[in-house]
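Fold this sequence, please.
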Amino acid sequence: MTELTEEQIQRYSRQIILPEVGGKGQRKLRQAKVLIIGAGGLGSPIALYLGAAGVGTLGLIDGDRVDLSNLQRQILHTTACVGTPKVESGQQLLAALNPDVHLRIYQEHITVANVMDIVSEYDLVLDGSDNFGTRFLVNDACFFAKKTLISGSIFRFEGQLATIKPHEGYPCYRCLYPEPPPAGLVPNCQEAGVLGVLAGTIGILQANEAIKEILQIGESLADRLLIYDALEMQFRKVARPKDPHCPLCSSSPRITTLEEHHVSCQVS
């Protein structure tokens, strides 16, 4: 690893003085490659905080354009960016925030056709998508690619967070939710609403877990689900055991290839 420059030492000084980080940890962050699925409510704080922390390469994938209704929670974008692709808007702000970061943008949606090629380029994947179809597809792709996945979701006033790494013996997303819910069962966020700052809370927690995974510090959420209630201001952790009959990661899997799902919104 190359040494940090004087400017980098000054920029990241408040992190570097932490014994758990130090110069060695900061260099690990600089070498890391992290993929962010979605440049919306969750992807915005994830990208900003990982970029500010000095993660060397960030991949940002989103096929949508900035809409005025996004701005209540998607802090990667401004009013002037309405109508522009979200990845381009995000690229502008992240470049202004930290020119150290190499940003790869993908103006497209994650699909069966592209997910493995994209995921394989990164060390870590953070899912900030807003639909079950993408969520299950990303989980399955990360399983096949043996990539750690940090999954966050929000709905109304509740958020959920989990670290998924079945390649290290922990449960996958399908151990918790074996199949997507039937279409029409779960209202989407446009219909049910979502508190804007909830996206910030869960997105920042995803960024925090990513940094922990890169530095290999702290306690992982690999076998638990973190649930946050914004109205009660309450966090709780629940066990997330490995399902011996999981359709994906069990010893007798039913799912052996990627498949598309088309279901709206995030948490069940």
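Residues 16-239 form a domain with the Rossmann fold fold (CATH 3.40.50.720). The longest helix spans residues 196-215.
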